[in-house]
Design a protein that fits this description.
heterodimer, A: alpha/beta, Transcription Regulator spoIIAA, Heat Shock Protein 90, five-stranded mixed beta sheet, 41% helix, B: alpha+beta, 5 helices, 25% strand, globular
Chain lengths: 262, 151
């Protein structure tokens, strides 16, 4: 028989998240302990709890019911109770009980905390990519960014518009880059639940720099003349919420911000 | 091995499994563009999936941990290098054990079939060479080489 152990700890992330470590068997006799420890969470004015259950060996339906009640109380405060580290057998059991529709499950504590930070604190995540200045590499790059957006919960339409933006910006970077292609193109991505920021940096061909500056001034300025070139930038401006182009420093930097719409 | 200048891609991403599917797909697409066949590119995708998953699951668990993936595409091969900020001693020892094992018969089937041992065995099966380096600052670096004819 595994002895039940529980403790409530503060998380490294902040005071509003509690880590609830549970070990052993959760059966009908553990209801009192569940309530005692849950009250500690409520007393600390925390509204988000992460139940670390990698060493839980058994969960009865009575215990699941009690935990559902705990979750309900946190949900009424705008929070949640999530499970971390449950083994496959117990997850399967909870699936049969329908608990999978109510609780969120994570493999480890860090994933659970990062998900909380993403949802509640709009914590951004960053990706950096460096790739050779070749046109045939632009499709994989745009698909990478689009798929990252989808993976992080952005809708299909938003992801496709993001893909279009990346395609235009990267194509420009390749086409107007220095001909010897000695320097790679860098793409910086910063994504949170509400917006995505894309920054592409390349070294422009000095011979094309003046015309690039003229086109961007026209598109980003208030007087938009009809230009023969520059439709790509106009398209980016139409699809995004903010577009900035900088020609100083390490090269040409195009910074695009797009708010999530769906 | 031909040592012509490779096409090199570098990706730094959060140590979060959400990023692995897009990144492995990206590598696969790049290899197709660079005229490797679909079998080669899919097997490379499997390699990238396994080494990234390993880095995320067993590397540093600090909140802001990142993983670096470098792909160098030569005409006759692709080389992957993945760096993570290092996990526990237990994981490092297990990693060394799996990579340094030469004879597959020595393999502890129970260990390899656990969800913590199978990944690198797959990588070894699909590639020509797997090297492990653990640097002073605990950064774990795994290098994998896959030749074109290994498809």
């Amino acid at each position: 028989m595994n002895v039940l152990k529980m403790e409530v700890l503060e998380s490294d992330f902040g005071p509003d998240v509690a880590i609830w470590r549970i070990e052993g068997e959760l059966d009908a006799s553990s209801i009192k302990a569940i309530n005692q420890h849950f009250n500690k969470i409520l007393e600390g004015s925390r509204f988000h709890a992460i139940a670390e259950m990698s060493k839980v060996t058994h969960i009865s339906s009575a215990a699941v019911g009690e935990l559902m009640g705990c979750r309900q109380m946190l949900a009424e405060r705008g929070g949640d109770l999530v499970f971390v580290g449950l083994n496959l057998d117990l997850k399967t059991k909870l699936n049969h009980l329908g608990a999978i529709k109510i609780f969120k499950f994570h493999n480890d504590l860090r994933t659970a905390i990062n998900q909380y930070a993403w949802e509640t604190h709009l914590k951004p995540e960053k990706v950096w990519l460096s790739f050779p200045s070749e046109l045939n590499l632009v499709p994989p790059v745009r698909q990478l960014v689009s798929q990252i957006a989808r993976q992080k919960g952005y809708g299909e339409r938003d992801s496709f518009r993001i893909e279009t933006i990346v395609d235009e910006v990267c194509n420009n970077a390749v086409e107007h880059g220095i001909p010897d292609k000695l320097r790679d193109i860098e793409l910086f991505l910063k994504i949170d639940r509400k917006k995505i920021e894309i920054e592409v940096v390349n070294l422009s061909d000095p011979k094309k720099l003046n015309s690039l500056k003229a086109i961007s001034k026209s598109i980003l300025g208030t007087n938009e003349k009809k230009l023969e070139r520059g439709r790509g930038l106009s398209l980016i401006k139409m699809l995004s919420n903010d577009l900035a182009i900088d020609f100083s420093g390490k090269g040409t930097t195009v910074h695009v911000t797009k708010l999530r719409e769906d | 091995m031909k040592n012509t200048t490779p096409l090199t891609f570098k990706v730094k991403f959060p140590s979060n499994a959400d990023y692995i599917p897009p990144i492995r797909k990206f590598v696969s697409e790049v290899l197709l563009v660079e005229h490797f066949n679909s079998k080669f590119s899919f097997r490379s995708e499997v390699i990238v999936d396994e080494i990234c998953y390993n880095a995320v699951s067993y590397g540093s668990h600090s909140m802001d941990a990142t993983v670096d993936l470098i792909c160098s595409v030569f005409s006759d091969r692709v080389e992957f290098q993945i760096n993570d900020e290092g996990g526990t001693h237990e994981h490092m020892d297990r990693l060394k054990k799996v990579i340094e094992k030469e004879d597959d018969a020595e393999l502890d089937v129970k260990q390899s079939r656990s969800d913590k041992g199978l990944g690198l065995e797959i990588v070894k099966m699909l590639s020509a060479k797997v090297n492990l380096k653990i640097k002073k600052d605990n950064v774990t670096s795994i290098q994998v080489i896959k030749h074109r004819e290994d498809a």
